[in-house]
Design goal:
mainly alpha, about 0% strand, globular
Length: about 120
Amino acid sequence: MAFNLPGRLKGRAFAFGAVFLMSLAPILIKLGILQSLDAIPLLTLRFWLAALVLWPVFFIVDRRVLRVRRKQLLPLCLASAIFAASYLLYYLALPYIGASIDHMLVAVSPAVVLLLPSEVLEQVG
């Protein structure tokens, strides 16, 4: 997929798009929960829909990203487990907090990254 933008501008556009769409997520999730949807099935549905959208995109754009080597399995499984646990806790918390409070809590994420040891940060780029 080719976007005719310089690299830095393309990165900023993608980052802005991601932040914009991610800021809509808590509001939509909160609406679903207010419509008496349970948090866990809602999260499950979100992951399934994401998979249905992303698999064909990756298959069409670059199939190589779908290959996983054996040495990549452990980090992949660890990252997936941490990600799944964080989203599960996030969805379970939303009925009890407002979407605006949620946005403030998510803003703490950069501070958490700053607290990580520098050796960890150097390894991931």
